[in-house]
TrEMBL record:
Major location category of this protein: periplasm
Gene designation: flgA
Role, per record: Involved in the assembly process of the P-ring formation. It may associate with FlgF on the rod constituting a structure essential for the P-ring assembly or may act as a modulator protein for the P-ring assembly.
UniProt KW keywords: Bacterial flagellum biogenesis, Cell projection, Cilium, Flagellum, Periplasm, Signal
Protein's UniProt name: Flagella basal body P-ring formation protein FlgA
Family statement: Belongs to the FlgA family.
Location(s), subcellular: Periplasm
Signal sequence range: 1-17
InterPro entries xref list: AFP_Neu5c_C_sf, Flagellar_FlgA, SAF, SAF_FlgA
Domain SAF: residue ranges: 17-74
């Protein structure tokens, strides 16, 4: 029995790594800043590098103290459903700009469905970093 106690006393304890947690309750759709993060010690999996979380948007509400995981975050949405945005169709030297109503949310680089307001046709478009839409050929 003494050997067991001595063995347990001398064996190293599992190391706890610092992970990032929410410094306050973050509602769904919040774009994360450095002020929203704090480091905690814990054995639960989560992000440890602030650059992996800052600038991303929460998918769901994250309560204060909960470790941040990549699955809880997404690229920020630039386009919201049912908004009107410029739609650009470009092929060679031809460039047509019109307006379209968005039919879903979208982040930069995502393909979403939009409705051309002039023709009422529904087409696919890529969300550009400036918030405009580029029609897919």
């Amino acid at each position: 029995m003494r050997w067991l106690f001595l063995l347990l006393a001398l064996s190293p304890l599992p190391a706890q790594a610092a992970v990032l947690a929410a410094a306050r309750t973050l509602p769904a759709g919040t774009v994360i800043t450095a002020a929203d993060l704090r480091a905690i010690d814990g054995d639960r999996p989560g992000l440890s590098d602030p650059s992996e979380a800052i600038g991303l948007q929460t998918r769901i509400t994250i309560h204060e103290g909960r470790p941040l995981q990549a699955s809880l975050l997404q690229a920020p949405k630039l386009i919201s459903r049912n908004q009107i945005h410029p739609l650009v169709f470009q092929r060679g030297a031809l460039r047509i700009v019109t307006e379209a109503r968005t039919l879903s949310d979208g982040a930069a680089g995502e393909v979403i469905r939009v409705m051309n307001l002039e023709s009422r046709a529904t087409i696919s478009a890529t969300v550009q970093p400036d918030g405009s839409l580029l029609a897919i050929k």
